[in-house]
Amino acid sequence: MNTLISNKSGSFRENIEFFVTEKITGLTPSVALDVSEIKIPEFLELSDPYFYEAKEIHALLNADIFFRIIKDNVYKVNEELLFRETEFGWVTGGRLQETKTNNFSCYLFKDNYSIEETLKLFFELESLGIKDDPCYREDDQAMNVFKETVQNNNNWYVVELPFLKHWNELSDNFSVAKQRFHSLWRRLKRDKTLYTQYKETIQDYLNQGIIEKVKNIETNECKPMYYLPHQAIKKEGRVTTSTRIVFDAASHQANELSLNDCLWPGPNLNPNLLDVLINFRLNRVAISSDIRQAFLQICLADKHKDFVRFLWTDSNPRIEKNPTLQVYRFNRVIFGVNSSPFLLAATIKYHREI
After folding, report:
1. Residue 109 pLDDT exceeds 60
2. Is 343 exposed, middle or buried (0-12, 13-18, 19+ CB in 10 A)?
3. Most buried pick, 1, 31, 232, 342, via CB within 10 A?
4. Are the C-beta atoms of 160 and 304 separated by less than 8 Å?
5. By C-alpha distance, which of 212, 241, 184 is closest to 308?
6. How far apart are CA 332 and CA 157, in angstroms?
7. What angle do CA 286, 287, 290 make, to 5 degrees?
8. Among 31-40, 138-147, 324-333, the range of highest mean pLDDT
9. Quick check: 11 and 87 in contact, CB under 8 A?
10. pTM of structure
11. What is the DSSP letter of 201?
12. Cα–Cα distances in angstroms (integers) from residue 212 to residues 63, 314, 326, 330, in the given order
């Protein structure tokens, strides 16, 4: 993104291209510094009056900008601390004591790096403190869960949801799902055709075993659950189904987590589009295919089915104002859950490799 940066007076203005990232580095300085005995002249207009506090870095300027904003004036406080004037005010450099010193004991193993190895290490992102923790890579976590839990049961692949948080951190979302169902119910009252299509889709799911009624709907604190709100999406002019039921796994109660918040989305395992296009040009005839209801061809593990519950009713909106709600749950992977595309692609990849 391009952003215009400027100092307070407006004497320096520069349009700079930034790359956006969630985190640049850790707190800078890493701990609060003690400036109680430092006398800073009042005529120094500091770019950051609270430079001694540990704070986040919001923007990182590259070298060509740095040498354009730096000025010649230098004010030396003592042998260890100095201030230098820039377009944004005076900045500090040197050494200060921490407000509190903790003593730690450790053992050190020293390895004599060659000059080439040292230079390589210097330029690695890890040396700047902005490299991802290799032990906590999101893609690896999702893939590990899949590999450890995928099963083949009677020619059906069975997978588990790749939870990144403990189940108990997820609220049931029942109140939101109920409120949105009543909103949907009012819409179905006004649109008879939509109600018919909606009901036929639910019945088709039941007939195929994609969903099932929940017989015991009592809440069990030891076994968390989640209710998915749903709505109809109409796409006029489609050759296939013009009305599709979409489930919302991003929904959540106030100050609570959604199902999507608790799942690893997983890596993108889809083939590179450039490779696909090049392969299309290799031969005179190209063939493409599609898997009907692809997500729904993968079974969900029994212990995770209660995380994909939803509300429906056999009541007729033309007759009954207040429907009798029934609880259903999915037996298959569904579209709308952020990990579903990964689970589908990982299952196809797994099937091809065995």
Report:
1. no
2. buried
3. 342
4. yes
5. 212
6. 10
7. 145
8. 324-333
9. yes
10. 0.59
11. H
12. 61, 14, 11, 7
